[in-house]
Amino acid sequence: MSTHIWLRAEDKPFEERTALTPEVAQRLLEKGFTISVEKSSQSAIKPEAFAAVGCELVEAGSWSDAPREAIILGLKELDVSETPLQHRHIHFAHVFKNQAGWQKVLQRFIEGEGALYDLEYLTDEQGRRVAAFGYWAGFAGAGVGLMAWAGQQLGNTPVLPALSAKNNKQALLDDLAAQLAAAKAAGGRTPRVLVMGARGRSGRGAVELAEAAGAEVTSWDIEETRAGGPFAEILQFDVLVNCVFVQAAIPPFLTSDMLADPARRLSVISDVSCDPYGDYNPLPIYKQCTTFDNPTLRLIEGENPLDLISIDHLPSLLPVEASEDFCAQLSPYYLQLDDLSQGVWQRALAVFEEKTRNLR
């Protein structure tokens, strides 16, 4: 029997990315896989492109009725429900760092005798992630952070209007260039940007965007943060782009008391890492994510405002390029889905089994 992959339609608002592209699907079909693709009206890659390479099209949301042996592939977490999960699922679940609701999610897998292969925990033998959207998260996060800063200089209300996906990263750069030019004409200065976690995937994307936009960029990584926070120096930048991946509790980078400093220059924080609900959030100055519809959260009002962006699916701003890059990274591992007892899949299952052991 051939291995059956079922690509579910993403239902999170503004999520236009996909966990599988037609190009990679074609390679899987050529190897003998069976692929069902749910019809999605919001995906940047249309169902017809999958049908053209030989995938079966099925109705959105029908994955729950898929054959039990099917592997359900997606990107973002499933909707909140108490329905037991009987399939093997591959997606970003955001439950292995004790995020809000993690026990209920894992209990669904236990009750349905299903399994979770979390995309965040696909690692090589050295423990390094084999695929990530990080570059695109950083690139988009720095972009919207600078857009918000430009909006502040221009006195816009809101400083950053609702976001929508761009055709490609050049379109984002062009839009940003126009906004920064207007801001410079109004305020007469170039923004100072601090990228934390600058050597990681997200950080590299953020630095590339900020430099391409003509900002004054400072890069911090392990050496600059080794002493531990809080870091008063952050207040001297216009925009902070946080790209630090945190796996354990650490001292905060900023505190609410620090932000009250009247000499604060910092006016925009773009938290690419975006983990306000977890125990390891290094920016414990906010408690909710923002969205494409309402991208900024005003932390401080008045003449020296502070706005925060904390969108947990920033790569959706550039959905086609982000999806193509991510799937290209994953393609050799997708081709191993006919044997989940090996390599990255075996290691991901071990994480799931460890996290659910005490719940059984």
What does this entry show, briefly?
By secondary structure, the chain is of the alpha/beta class. The protein contains ten helices and twelve strands.
CATH fold-level assignment of the largest domain: Rossmann fold
Number of domains: 2
Q: Strand order, main sheet: write it out.
A: 3-2-1-4-5-6
Low-confidence stretches at least 5 residues in length (pLDDT < 50)?
none
Terminal CA distance: 31 Å
Shape category: globular
**Per DSSP, what share of the residues sits in E-state strands of 2 or more residues?**
5-15%
The averaged pLDDT comes out at 96
CATH superfamily of the largest domain: NAD(P)-binding Rossmann-like Domain
Tell me about the biggest sheet? Answer: 6 strands, parallel
Spell out the helices and strands N to C.
EHEHEEEHEHHEHEHEHEEEHH
Return the CATH architecture of the largest domain: 3-Layer(aba) Sandwich
The total count of helices amounts to 10
Brief descriptors of the model:
360 residues, Rossmann fold, 14% strand, 2 domains, globular
